[in-house]
């Protein structure tokens, strides 16, 4: 994979003939109609470089805005600063690593050294209050961006880290729209649907609710108006379909049944029973089990009445572990509504549109792009990290090129694309334990 030369799109090569002798007019990078002097990136965990279930230095360095900014330097882009963790605290919030494969199943471990916490209760990360360009905050939602107190010690620890104590009540909206930018990327709103979906469609606090579409449209409009004041230009991203990620596609009903029957029960198990808002029923292949369910060890475990968990309607798999078909329809429809609002907002302000939703749906079942296999397959699909939601370095490079393509198309820029071959997928263990 490292030897492949991978580019999304082709370099612009013009062949001209002069004096009966062919010459090559090489691709010349240019800014087009955009001033890239101060680029800022607004968004959530994907923008920040969160990966493998945590925010850590290696992931921060390959966050897609950093990769975009590196390419922008060739067309007048200025310095791009990120709130990097120090080398001594490079593992940041902690994250998971792949330690081996047993019977073909991944074994992971939590990284617990070189963390960047300054307080364990409440959990608070080391402060970074210098000026930055990558404003991505893991967990940030469109609705929360306008609420005071999210940057306090009782709020979002990733945002709290970026604010001086005196600014703890500053909203993320105010913070992110007062950076004196000349160009912006905007990728906010994913968590307004994702939190609900990853919790199996169960509301359990403000981070697991579905933001109402009308509110989303209003807040998005406020954001875009503020960011484009003075005719400033930018690129806005659509929201990906959460069901196109390994978090929802890895643990299947078929795989669960195979695992149960491999234990050789007295009679073959033919159904997994799930709890739904309409009552318990047998799962179908259209129901999505969330990735963490595979490591709970709950399936088949008897309760006090000796009814095996998930194998009988009287002890079904809890709703929080399954995004059932009805809940899937709800979240897909809501994301589509958000994306219609995003497309309309981009058109109203003549902004570039990075259609992340369309791209990830195209690669969900697997494609080959210039010889590189990309899919939503867990671990081997190249694009997604071990948490099944966030991106690998390869995924970030692909994401950066989606944005670059959109900018070039809209503004007549000629920003060179990121060479994806320079980046890795999931980091494989040096040695794996013997298969049993």
Model description:
The chain is α/β, with parallel strands linked by helices. Helices cover 26% and strands 14% of the residues. The protein has twelve helices and 16 strands. It has a four-stranded parallel β-sheet with strand order 3-8-9-14, with helices on both faces. A two-stranded antiparallel ribbon has the order 1-2. Strands 4-5 form a two-stranded antiparallel sheet. Strand 4 (96-102) and strand 5 form a beta hairpin. Helix 3 packs across helix 12 (393-411), helix 6 packs antiparallel against helix 10 and helix 7 (213-227) runs parallel beside helix 10 (325-348). The longest helix has 24 residues, at 325-348. It is globular.
Portion of residues in beta strands equals: 5-15%
* Tally of contiguous helical segments: 12
Helix content: 25-40%
Low-confidence stretches: 1-25, 432-436
Structural class: alpha/beta
Task: Identify the overall geometry.
Answer: globular
Strand order of the largest sheet: 3-8-9-14
Radius of gyration: 23 Å
Number of strands: 16
Elements, N to C (H/E): EEEHHHEEEEHHEHHEHHEEEEHEHEEH
Distance between the termini: 29 Å
Taking the sheet with the most strands, its summary is: 4 strands, parallel
**Please, what is the average pLDDT?**
91
């Amino acid at each position: 994979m490292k030897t492949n030369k991978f580019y999304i799109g082709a370099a612009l090569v013009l062949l001209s003939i002069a004096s009966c002798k062919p010459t090559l007019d090489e691709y010349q990078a240019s800014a087009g109609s955009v001033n890239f002097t101060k680029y800022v990136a607004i968004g959530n965990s994907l923008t920040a470089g969160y990966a493998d279930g945590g925010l850590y230095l290696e992931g921060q360095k390959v966050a897609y805005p950093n990769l975009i900014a590196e390419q922008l330097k060739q067309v007048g882009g200025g310095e791009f600063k990120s709130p990097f963790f120090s080398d001594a605290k490079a593992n940041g919030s902690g994250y998971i690593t792949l330690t081996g494969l047993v019977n073909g199943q991944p074994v992971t471990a939590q990284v617990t050294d070189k963390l960047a916490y300054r307080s364990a209760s409440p959990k608070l990360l080391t402060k970074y209050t210098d000026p930055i360009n990558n404003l991505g905050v893991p967990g940030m939602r469109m609705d929360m961006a306008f609420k005071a107190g999210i940057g306090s010690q009782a709020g979002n620890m990733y945002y709290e880290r970026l604010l001086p104590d005196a600014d703890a009540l500053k909203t993320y909206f105010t913070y992110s729209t007062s950076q004196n930018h000349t160009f912006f990327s905007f990728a906010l709103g994913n968590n307004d649907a994702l939190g609900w979906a990853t919790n199996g469609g169960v509301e359990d606090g403000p981070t697991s609710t579905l933001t109402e579409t009308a509110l989303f449209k209003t807040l998005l409009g406020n954001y875009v108006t503020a960011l484009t004041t003075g005719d400033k230009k930018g690129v806005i991203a659509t929201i990906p379909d959460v069901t196109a990620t390994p978090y929802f596609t890895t643990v299947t009903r078929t795989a669960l049944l195979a695992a149960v029957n491999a234990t050789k029960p007295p009679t073959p198990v033919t159904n997994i029973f799930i709890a739904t808002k309409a009552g318990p029923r047998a799962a179908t292949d259209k129901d999505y089990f969330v990735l963490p369910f595979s490591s709970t060890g709950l399936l088949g475990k008897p309760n006090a009445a000796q009814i095996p968990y998930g194998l009988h309607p009287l002890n079904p798999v809890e709703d929080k572990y399954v995004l059932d078909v009805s809940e899937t329809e709800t979240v897909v429809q809501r994301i589509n509504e958000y994306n219609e609002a995003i497309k309309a907002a981009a058109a109203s302000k003549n902004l570039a549109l990075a259609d992340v939703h369309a791209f990830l749906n195209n690669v969900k079942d697997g494609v080959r792009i210039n010889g590189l296999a990309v899919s939503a397959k867990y671990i081997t699909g190249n694009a997604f990290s071990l948490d099944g939601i966030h991106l690998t370095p390869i995924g970030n490079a692909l994401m950066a090129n989606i944005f670059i393509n959109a900018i070039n198309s809209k503004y007549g820029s000629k920003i060179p694309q990121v060479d994806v071959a320079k980046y890795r997928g999931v980091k494989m263990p040096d040695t794996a334990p013997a298969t049993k």
